[in-house]
User: Which sequence fits this backbone?
């Protein structure tokens, strides 16, 4: 099947309520029974057909009552407020799983969602240092997240760690971090010292574009 040509590419940070490493990445159960968290992706290079998406930021917060694959989830997305109507519509097409294979990240996670709250358009703050293992983003009054390197409990020194998933649909390689995040309103939560991941990824109509998703090289020092 032919799809509209599109791509979004750039640094992505994500965190959830699981312990470091997240057992869900290994087909295990969520650490605390439920799964909740948030993520943000800065589109350094992107388009949907003739619509350029460079410089926009997309984010989301989510909660599932159990393991993600069991469904029943809720989600709320956020998009940079300066996105034009044309750009917003293009991102809706991507995030809703349209013009892409059913096995892409957006369709896989989308199939587990039961409740979707209206999206937020805001001045999203975003920072990501892949080498230092730090990142943050904020949708004022809605959700925010900070991440730093995991620390050795004895020396306090950074403890670099990675997850490598040769057949991963979200990423193939990501650096682990310690995350603190919160959300207000429809999906409220507050977590500290939980799973965090930093990566650089590209997605298109057929899923993860491995050749443009760079491995993360940590030099946390």
Assistant:
């Amino acid at each position: 099947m032919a799809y509209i040509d599109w791509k979004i590419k750039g640094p992505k940070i994500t965190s959830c309520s699981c312990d470091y490493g997240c057992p869900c990445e290994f087909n295990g159960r969520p650490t605390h029974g439920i799964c909740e968290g948030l993520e943000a992706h800065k589109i350094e290079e992107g388009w949907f057909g003739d619509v350029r998406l460079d410089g926009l930021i997309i984010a989301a917060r989510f909660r599932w009552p159990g393991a993600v694959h069991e469904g029943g989830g809720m989600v709320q997305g956020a998009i940079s407020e300066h996105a034009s109507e044309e750009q917003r519509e293009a991102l809706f097409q991507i995030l809703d799983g349209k013009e892409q294979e059913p096995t892409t990240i957006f369709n896989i996670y989308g199939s587990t969602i039961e409740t979707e709250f209206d999206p937020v358009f805001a001045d999203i703050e975003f920072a990501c240092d892949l080498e230092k293992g730090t990142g943050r983003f904020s949708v004022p009054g809605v959700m925010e997240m900070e991440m730093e390197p995991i620390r050795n409990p004895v020396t306090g020194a950074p403890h670099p760690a990675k997850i490598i998933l040769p057949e991963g649909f979200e990423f193939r390689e990501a650096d682990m971090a310690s995350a603190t995040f919160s959300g207000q309103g429809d999906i409220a939560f507050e977590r500290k010292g939980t799973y965090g991941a930093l990566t650089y990824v590209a997605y298109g109509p057929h899923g993860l574009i491995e050749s443009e998703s760079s491995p993360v090289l940590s030099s946390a020092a």
Remarks:
- The longest strand covers residues 189-204.
- Helices lie at 85-95, 105-110.
- The chain has one domain: 6-212.
